[in-house]
Amino acid sequence: MTAVLDRPAPVRPTGPALRARRLARRVAGPWTYAALIAVLAGSAFPVYWSFVVSSQTPDAIDSVPPVLVPGGHLFANIARVFDTTDFALALMNSIVVAGTVTVSVVFFSTLAGFAFAKLKFRGRNVLLLLIIGTQAIPTELGIIPLYMMMSEFGWAGQIHAVIVPGLVTAFGVFFMRQYFERAIPDELLEAGRMDGCHSLRLFWHVALPAARPAAAVLGLFTFMQAWNDFFWPLVVLVPENPTVQTALSTLASGYTTDYTLVLTAATIGTVPVLAVFLLFGRQIVGGIMSGAVKG
Amino acid sequence: MALIDKAARRHRWDTKFAPYGYVTPYFLIFGVFGLFPLLYTIWVSLQHRNLLDEGGAYVVWFANYAKLLADPYFWNAMGNTLSLWLLTTVPQILFALGIAALLNRKVRTRTLFRMGVILPNITSVAAVTIIFAQLFGRDFGLVNWVLDLFGAGQIDWQAGTATSHIAIAVMVVWRWTGYHALIFLASMQAISPSLYEAATLDGASGWQQFWRITVPLLRPQIIFTTIIATTGNMRLLAEPLLFNPGAAAATGGSDRQFQTAALYLYEQGFTNYDFGYSSAIAVVLAIATIIVAGLGYLVTKRIQTE
């Protein structure tokens, strides 16, 4: 014990020596923190500013110098948004679309991902390659025929036109397949088979519980993507039956010059994804870093 | 005996056919609503098909493509698309590399910083564009106010080709840089610290280490990101559409100064209802995207390890 006390205090390296040591150990110095804080501020500012405008009176948006602190008119502005447009319907539609799409994508991706990873069948590799290949193609390029189909079905203007094409994604299947490949040992499934388990029971009792972490990440991303989807809903829906994103577009293109109203709507529309983000930020970051999202 | 037989049959049925049942929902829905429309676009592009025409649709083979090649609005849109591709893709990758390098240091509260950089990516493109359109406003926009402090005066961002492209590029770069940074960060963490230690002992500065060790070792991710970013940036639509919202939004500015090819596709398809012509634009845009992505691949492939 005394030996420790007797040891002379370590000399703190200073100047260039300190920098070299930090460099070698990759420890962040004050400049790194300054830069990161600047990045953080830049990332958050536009969303923050939108919130500030939403909480001010309509003339604040035009004031010089700009207003940068929240005011007390948030609820008055929210009320005005709901009075001006049927934003409640837009929110409802977005919840239904994003909710259905999320449940469906997670379920079908887990089912197909399980089959691709753990069951043997003829043509498996070819079909898997097809899925990987179609991931790279932007499906928006098929938007004209898709619209023609929806008109033919009489679905144009209705939300199932947005829901149905989103029910499955190539990315989801591939992602779950990659997860199952690593997460479930083949021996476990073999043991289940020996006990006379049908593959559907193996799926239900072995695969599905094991898939929960990956399914959750896939669900988070699918929800956010479906909530934010813009182009296809814009094309196939009508202003009278919008999602949040198309309602924003209508509001911004309308004859109102009241941009406080528009930004309040944008803020309201961002709240659900922001809530998901704040609750599950760690999982979302982890998901992206493990390659969970396509661009 | 009969019981075993039955069980065996069931087992065989299960291993042979059940897997197809599990993958069928995917292929059924994707085939009908994903793959079929994609392929059918080519067929529609060979037709005269305009919803406003009473005459209905008929095959014209390559007439839409011939018209396209002679259409100045199309070339304008392609030029804008390429300009925006360059202005978005290059900064995205450079900034993402820089931010990833910062995040790769041993930082306290690292989850906070990582969540911070991804925040722009989770906000919707519609909301982002509406917010930035206000920030880039001519008379009361915050960007102009800041520039004014430095004596730069008022810029009418939407009016000029260059200024409007810069404003749109800022929105795209803001929204995507953090996402790419996290992809780079994941790979940076896999680089052995001993490489940096050795370089430090040899007297290499942080800057030199970044360009001579980090960047060359990230080559596969840089190539991947360039291709992903290219496919996204070649079909920008929401940003130019909502930058100047209104009745004529689909033209991308009064002189079409920021109309992208995707926006021109939208204008032809859903304000003029010329489905044949719009499909031809989709096909040409797809080919152009493949060419530009290939170009990006050739450039990033040249990053070398010393």
TrEMBL record, chain B:
<keyword id="KW-0812">Transmembrane</keyword>
<feature type="transmembrane region" description="Helical">
    <location>
        <begin position="20"/>
        <end position="43"/>
    </location>
</feature>
<feature type="transmembrane region" description="Helical">
    <location>
        <begin position="157"/>
        <end position="174"/>
    </location>
</feature>
<feature type="transmembrane region" description="Helical">
    <location>
        <begin position="115"/>
        <end position="137"/>
    </location>
</feature>
<dbReference type="InterPro" id="IPR051393">
    <property type="entry name" value="ABC_transporter_permease"/>
</dbReference>
<comment type="similarity">
    <text>Belongs to the binding-protein-dependent transport system permease family.</text>
</comment>
<keyword id="KW-1133">Transmembrane helix</keyword>
<feature type="domain" description="ABC transmembrane type-1">
    <location>
        <begin position="78"/>
        <end position="296"/>
    </location>
</feature>
<keyword id="KW-1003">Cell membrane</keyword>
<keyword id="KW-0472">Membrane</keyword>
<dbReference type="InterPro" id="IPR000515">
    <property type="entry name" value="MetI-like"/>
</dbReference>
<dbReference type="Pfam" id="PF00528">
    <property type="entry name" value="BPD_transp_1"/>
</dbReference>
<feature type="transmembrane region" description="Helical">
    <location>
        <begin position="82"/>
        <end position="103"/>
    </location>
</feature>
<protein>
    <submittedName>
        <fullName>Carbohydrate ABC transporter permease</fullName>
    </submittedName>
</protein>
<keyword id="KW-0813">Transport</keyword>
<feature type="transmembrane region" description="Helical">
    <location>
        <begin position="275"/>
        <end position="299"/>
    </location>
</feature>
<dbReference type="InterPro" id="IPR035906">
    <property type="entry name" value="MetI-like_sf"/>
</dbReference>
